[in-house]
Amino acid sequence: MAEKLVPVVCPYCGVGCRFYIKTVDGYPVGIEYATDIPGISNENGKLCPKGNAAVEYLLAKDRLKKPLKAKEQGKFVEISWSEAIKEVAERLKAYAKDDPNQLMFFGSARTFNEPNYLIQKLARMLGTNNVDHCARLCHAPTVTGLKQVFGAGAMTNTYKDIEEANVIFIIGHNYAETHPVGFRYVLKAKERGAKVIVADPRFTRTAWHADIFLQHYPGSDVALINGLIHVIIKEKLYDPKFVRERCVGFDEVVKAVEKFTPEFVEKVTGVPAELIVEAARTFATAGKGVITWAMGLTQHTHGTENVKLLGTLAAICGYQGKEGAGCSPMRGQNNVQGACDMAALPNVFPGYQAVTSEEKRKFFEEFWGVELSGEVGLTTVEAAYAVDEGKVKAYYVMGENPVISEANANHVMHVLEKLEFMVVQDIVPTPTMEFADIVLPAAAMLENEGSLTNTERRVQWSFQAAKPPGEARPDWWIISEIGKAVGFDKDGSKGFIYNDAADVLREINACTPQYRGITPERLKANLAGIHWPCPSPDHPGTRVLYKERFLTPDGKAHLAAVPEYKGPVELPDEEYPFLLTTYRYVGMYHTLTMTARSDALNKRWPEPLAEIHPDDAAKLGIKTGDWIKIETRRGVYPIKVKVTRTIKKGVVGVPWHWAANVLTNDALDPVAKIPETKACACRVAKISEEEAKKLMEKLPSIVPRIEVVKG
Amino acid sequence: MARKTIFIDFSKCIECRACEVACEREHNGKSFINVFEWQEMAAMALNCRHCETAPCVEVCPTNALYRDKDGAVILAPQRCIGCLMCGIVCPFGIPELDLINKVMGKCDLCAQRRAEGKEPACAATCPTDALIFGDFDEIQRKRREKFTERAIEVAKKAEKISLLGV
Ligand code: SF4
Ligand code: SF4
Ligand code: SF4
């Protein structure tokens, strides 16, 4: 028996923890904590429950093992790889010949940098910039918002800086449950005496650790943050030197926040005025502060404004460009940052180089050896509406599950049904796959190797720990085969001929300035990875951004003035009297494709529960354990109730993993194009268990109705 | 040899249940640590305390419960007759009856891992250090140190303020 320990990166969240997979003769049997790798993001090898259960989903019985072709919806026959590749390539080519913008590609934040680089390269070489991925649904406002204020959209610091901060402001983010190992650094700061401020409509596990807790209504963030800035300016608690030397636009901010007095903000957000004042003072006078946020803040029609205001708040306090300070958007999946860096986005080439820039486009035309489109492509939600209009006809979906992850899921399903052609590449059957024409079985991340970029810009190499089942193949291999079959078979960067993932990374090094020095050789030798930007092979990587200047054209932070208070587009009314918000469970992950295939996790988090305040529950005549149906203008959702004082009165909270997106609103933020998943109006009624079961049949099924039939 | 055990800091537990999943993985699908929630929010992980004068060891009629060289209270299943005495006397209700084999089961402080020089799984994984594997005296000493550190810090601040004449 040959026992081996293979160093991998966790297949789940954006903390990007490392651990070892224990294998016996190449078969994964367990895990071991990485206590011997200094400097990784999970100090002392700590892991949350998902990391601990990581081997289980690899061994799931329903792993996809052969390419499939649909006979009718949901019914497939097995085909060979060569047939599958030929068919996909021919269909893609035909659409591209006609009009490349009929195609839409989805990259994936759950797979390595290399396949994400390749899928956008394929899309762009075919002539379209229609490529996007689920970062659109989580942190698009972070990218657009921070870019406007600081010049780039990534976390400006690292975990080490969270640990060293004196105050940590956590907003729209249940840090303890979404990124348990990242939360470690918050608690370590707190132990040193740092203050923790939490703003959330729910009293979460994170709020439990707060020194100051601001329980605001979902979607009232603009008012809350403006209120904090108002107090800081009024009481002259900001950093005048930093504002003078490194920021522009301060006077406009002063004007814009004028009306956001603590009293006004109290009315809009439901947070007592004294608490707003106390939070503002605590934050501004700490000397070193970090702001962290996630989807509770971004998934709004004013998501970009929220983020811009947070950037402004950090900047006026001087919390940028130094250690122990900064802005830390927390990414959900282990490679959201990487998929964005690799440009699985409709508006940029790798390294955030705008497709509309003549000069950048010239570079890539030369580099890839084809003519490229300079027209910004479609985002995920826009693509769905373009299908409705008959403009987009084919989807290539790599490792994504839009039926569960996109807002207004009923519309998404309607759209997928309407598509002429859809390829889904994944590791297990997903509800999205029910609509596919071709299914390509992919190797899971842990059965495969490559680089990933965690939420703090740390690029790490993950090694292959197990053999993929059946004929499942690595994502980079699948896309490169399709690329060659389409006809891009030239050598070097002009084609799709690669021997391994390292080959692809070398090409990324050559065209992505931030990754220039992050070579496969360096990553394999240094398991703790490298923080980008890393402009050359001898550069150590960058911990804190913007030490001297920001990345805006003039090098200054562009403070944002948002004088108008905007709440959610859909507010409670007589017909729909409650405000609905969504959240997640610590042991469940996104669309459940992986975690629902782990016994250990499934038995601990078996079902969703809707949180309702006792006063509301009394009015509705419901108690814990009852079935209810939640209804919005877009859908109906049956769920069991948990009556709890931890949620704000008037708000109903549901975990989104089990297809709750049939309810949510797909109204878009005009800049970031993110749908307003976090707040919409709803009504609630008690129902019987039978009725609940009946309603459930109409939901997208977590265990999909996919059948493989004979020839 | 100093006696080591797992210390639990309730104030830090985030109810992530990583400890349960880790223990379950190390012990063939059975977790010997349980995380409880009460009052809607407070959470607390509880496993065997490996008590100094362990009532379970004292009452076991067959000597199925014994102490290993690190001081952990261990159950030898081949000697256990499933009489449930240990479960009844344990103030925390830790020993549990394995319904299939009709013998008791309990936390063994991860004997296998300790033999390899590793920490018990639950403490190794706990993201917030709510669980710490350590020596009682040492942990107490650290807590005293931390307390003095804070006291000194406060004293220094007070001094500064009086120097400024505020
Ligand atoms: S915190 Fe995130 S990266 Fe770390 S083990 Fe948990 S899911 Fe994996
Ligand atoms: S691992 Fe730690 S924080 Fe998580 S439930 Fe167990 S004791 Fe609590
Ligand atoms: S010490 Fe080991 S056996 Fe005991 S509860 Fe922790 S993981 Fe389980």
TrEMBL record, chain A:
Family membership: Belongs to the prokaryotic molybdopterin-containing oxidoreductase family.
Transmembrane region positions? Answer: none
Q: Alphabetically, which GO biological process terms does the record hold?
A: formate metabolic process
Which cofactors must be present for this protein to function? [4Fe-4S] cluster
Q: Which organism is it from?
A: Thermococcus paralvinellae
What SMART domains does the record tag this protein with? Answer: Molybdop_Fe4S4 (SM00926)
Query: Carries keyword 4Fe-4S?
Result: yes
The record's PANTHER family line, in alphabetical order, gives: DMSO REDUCTASE CHAIN A, TUNGSTEN-CONTAINING FORMYLMETHANOFURAN DEHYDROGENASE 2 SUBUNIT B
Name the record gives this protein: Formate dehydrogenase subunit alpha
Q: Which domain of life is it from?
A: Archaea
Automatic annotation (TrEMBL), chain B:
One of the entry's Gene Ontology molecular-function terms is:
metal ion binding
Stored Gene3D superfamilies: 3.30.70.20
Please state what the protein is called.
4Fe-4S binding protein
List the InterPro entries hit by this protein, alphabetically: 4Fe4S_Fe-S-bd (IPR017896), 4Fe4S_Fe_S_CS (IPR017900), ET_IronSulfur_Cluster-Binding (IPR050954)
Q: State the organism of origin.
A: Thermococcus paralvinellae
Per the database record, which ranges form the 4Fe-4S ferredoxin-type domain?
4-23, 38-70, 71-100
Which keywords fit this entry according to its UniProt record? 4Fe-4S, Iron, Iron-sulfur, Metal-binding
- Positions the record marks as coiled coil are none
